[in-house]
Amino acid sequence: MRRITFLLIFGLAGLGVLVSLGVWQVQRLGWKQDVLAEINDRISAEPVSLPQQPSETRDKYLPVFVQGEMQPGEIHVLVSVKQVGAGYRVIQAFDTGDRTILVDRGFIPTTAKQVERHTGQIELTGNLHWPDEIDGYTPEPDLSANIWFARDVPALAAALGTDPVLLIARSQTDPNVTPLPVDTAGIPNDHLGYAITWFGLALVWAAMTGYFLWRGRAPSESEAQ
To answer: Transmembrane residues, as ranges (predicted)?
Structure first.
């Protein structure tokens, strides 16, 4: 009886922990969905003028409308697009008259690296962004081939002589450049998968607990005979 009691307490405690973890992930899923909905609303809002002092904490994803001159000179950031393949994001300096910022014009295939693109006066809409793409495994840019491996805003700004402000174009700036607007597709939301995993483990734990309880009772029943 003591062994049965121990198995029962241990099994219920473990089941409670696993179920509580699953419930927590369901709660996190609801929170993340609310966050993503808020970001989507912000991304698709009516564009405003470029703030005087853009701030990452205040202005991330802010939609803006700017007029100015696209400067010559490009930086190419290696990227892969689903169903298209490898190519580059085209980053250029954009002079608004008051300041010069970075503009991510969008995607070009690797074969279009040397194609001349439109510069000069342009009106465009887009979203301010400070991508978090740098980690300890990110290679240094290949400056001789003009290939970068992440959008490191301060480094890009230093290379092109602009303010460290990046505008991701959502309007087309050149017929040969496909805009890659900001969206929430790259923001991870794995909480549903985590919840299913914890609830699945809870089910297995309950089944194993029931099995061991049954096995624990078997010897005592045989001895009683």
So the answer is: 192-214
- The whole-model pTM stands at 0.78
**Does the structure show a pLDDT above 80 at 200?**
yes
Asked if 164 and 154 touch (Cβ cutoff 8 Å), the reply is yes
Q: Is residue 48 pLDDT above 60, yes or no?
A: yes
Q: Where are the domains of the chain?
A: 2-38+189-224, 62-169
CA dist., res. 205 & res. 208, Å (int): 5
Q: What is the dihedral of CA 3, 8, 10, 11, to 10 degrees?
A: 130
Tokens 């904490």 belong to which residue? 57
11 has pLDDT over 90 = no
Q: How many angstroms separate the most distant Cα atoms in the chain?
A: 97
| Strand 166-169 versus strand 120-128 pairing type | antiparallel
